[in-house]
Design goal:
It is a single chain. With 111 residues, the chain is an all-alpha fold. Helix content is 95%, strand content 0%. It contains 2 helices and no strands. Helix 1 packs antiparallel against helix 2.
Amino acid sequence: MTKTELEALKAGDASATLDRLERRIEAAAKVLVGLREERDTLRAEGEDLRRRIEERDGRVAELEAALEKSLNANEDVARLEKEKETLVRDRAATARRVEAILEKLEVLELG
């Protein structure tokens, strides 16, 4: 209550002062209701955002796992390609040795 309102009460203008106070209280109550509604709305939005973040985190984890699997698969492919190259070289060397042995057998049979 302001000093002016106290003076008005003392001067006998209590009804008008009380009316003003009542209007101020009603206005404050409306502001309080509005703030509570806004708080509730913000809480709901915050919960929704938390839920969405958790969903996104789950999706990120899935994508990271898929990426890791893909990287491992790429490493496996590279390893298998090197192994294939080695086997092809070994096959060629074996074929040359077999041809050399066949030539020696042919010479022995003819001689």
